[in-house]
Amino acid sequence: MAAAASPANLLPLAILPHLLFDWSGTGRADAHSLWYNFTIIHLPRHGQRWCEVQSQVDQKNFLSYDCGSDKILSMGHLEEQLDATDAWGKQLEMLRDVGQRLRLELADTEKEDFPPSGPLTLQARMSCECEADGCIRGSWQFSFNGQKFLLFDSNNGKWTAVQDGARRLKEKWEKDSELTMFFKMVLRDCKSWLRYFLTHRKKRLEPTAPPTVAPGLAQPKAKATTLSPWSFLIILCFILPGI
Asked: Which of 83, 152, 150, 93 is nearest to 123 (CA)?
């Protein structure tokens, strides 16, 4: 018959679910997401921003950024702590580059695929989502004047036309290997930032100092005592009477 498990043996089994729970590196088993919503206007009116980014982490406002003038419009408390980090500066640099690239693509698209009836607006959503199993997926969604046109999945590298009018643009962007690689590389950075932001948030929520004992409740430390050779001999005599 197998011997019953002792409490010491059961302890590792008791904490195993918690170890698996934290294995994703985020400290949570649910999904997380990081979104960057770009709004690009090719010919903006006076006083109108031609490039603006709204960002969300777990569907909560994360950052509002004017990528045309390189100005931060608003950000949350966590982002204020990240402001001085190297990753934060690289993030803003990426947002500026993406805004410039989307503006060039919008200008070419307006000439070829849309009649010049008015200023054309491009909405591009870059999203990175971390599933419960720790896998992170990245994708792009492109809309023109509020109508969804194209989707791009970085995992399989495929472009998808959402409506018939987007087939020509899909074929054009699909053949542009340099443009496809650009969107892939940016999504790769997006995945890294999602991990970084979640790790930083976890560290911020963890206690940074051990609990302190209230004054007056601390127990006095016992003073160390030393025995003389004669005292030690007397004790041995009581313990071992045959000596």
From this structure: 150
